[in-house]
């Protein structure tokens, strides 16, 4: 296949920002479109609302809550990288079946950490998921349980079904959490797979609890079955529309698999792809090539939350100078990012005292006065999403 022309960093940034609806906000009714592009991660809790607000004009917390809890057009469950995501309920097969690795080995790669315990038990992951699935309906029917409550009840039930040798290992202290039996930790991993098998999802948070419910009870119907190949192909298309040009390795990191496990996704759409030169060979959907070359120049500002979909791209040096990577992508306590005129220009952190919110913005360079004014306007919109009635903005530079 011939390599297309080299594409510039400016073209790529403009294309991706447009795909993420960060060039121009969607209007009323745009919530599901924004969430359905590539899903919206909701960790730390509440970050999804901020990400959606950055994409949808005049979005309120109540609109998102109604979409989740009332008409249930927005669903939350564990998804890519085993993280909690919002996506449209109508797109659920793409973000469940489409994410689920198709083999035992690939599933083990997806839930890193379970392998040693499973080997100690002499149990396959497939068998552990089946045991967990056999019990989860009886345990969860008519109830809302956080993962620790759910895991403890299911692990106790499974223990009774195991032969003595396995039961003894199952009930041993495990490596995952203080005081947690090994088998309970295994159940936690299995629940991640059951979310992708469309068995369970999240109900709205209650205080500090993120409770699970049965999908068919929550929605009033099961998520439809579709051909896994169709779901995986569509997941990869959505990834490339938001993060293209890209590579197998970067898709694997985004999805939560290893590069050697990408073929069940990549092979399905290979005939739809075109090579481009973007610091090396990358791939874009052929139908998007013209849009990539002619994306409008981004303007305006946004306050993006930690782990915003846009900052989840894996070629991080494309959007942030490498010397600032440790400031932007922290292992713990990750900040939000400042987007101005199509560039990540700094980070921001909120501090709340009563009903007053302070937003501390720290930039890589001094911002023009107009950008500062616009960011104050953004901060005023963010305040009610954080439960605040007033906001003060502080500026500093690295």
Topology diagram in text:
Layout: H1 9-19, H2 31-36, E1 40-41, H3 47-53, H4 61-69, E2 74-78, E3 84-88, H5 92-95, H6 104-110, H7 115-121, H8 125-140, H9 147-161, H10 164-170, H11 182-196, E4 200-202, E5 212-214, H12 215-219, H13 228-243, H14 248-255, H15 263-269, E6 273-277, E7 281-285, H16 289-293, E8 301-304, H17 325-328, E9 336-340, E10 343-353, E11 356-363, H18 369-385, E12 390-397
Parallel strand pairs: 11-12
Antiparallel strand pairs: 1-3, 2-3, 4-5, 6-7, 8-9, 9-10, 10-11
Helix pairs in contact: 8-9, 8-11, 9-11, 13-15
Order of helices and strands: HHEHHEEHHHHHHHEEHHHHEEHEHEEEHE
Question: DSSP helix count?
Answer: 18
| Share in helix | 40-55%
- Assembly state: single chain
How many angstroms does the end-to-end distance come to?
45 Å
SS-based structural class?
alpha+beta
Unreliably modeled segments: none
What proportion of the residues form beta strands (DSSP E)?
15-25%
Structural features, described:
By secondary structure, this protein is α+β, with helices and mostly antiparallel strands. Among the domains are: 104-196, no CATH class; 320-397, Alpha-Beta Plaits (2-Layer Sandwich), CATH 3.30.70. The protein has helices spanning 9-19, 31-36, 47-53, 61-69, 92-95, 104-110, 115-121, 125-140, 147-161, 164-170, 182-196, 215-219, 228-243, 248-255, 263-269, 289-293, 325-328, 369-385; strands at 40-41, 74-78, 84-88, 200-202, 212-214, 273-277, 281-285, 301-304, 336-340, 343-353, 356-363, 390-397. The strands form four sheets. Strands 8-9-10-11-12 form a five-stranded mixed beta sheet, covered by helices on one side. Helix 18 links the parallel strand 11 and strand 12 (390-397). Helix 8 packs across helix 11 and helix 9 crosses helix 11. It is globular and about 70 Å long.
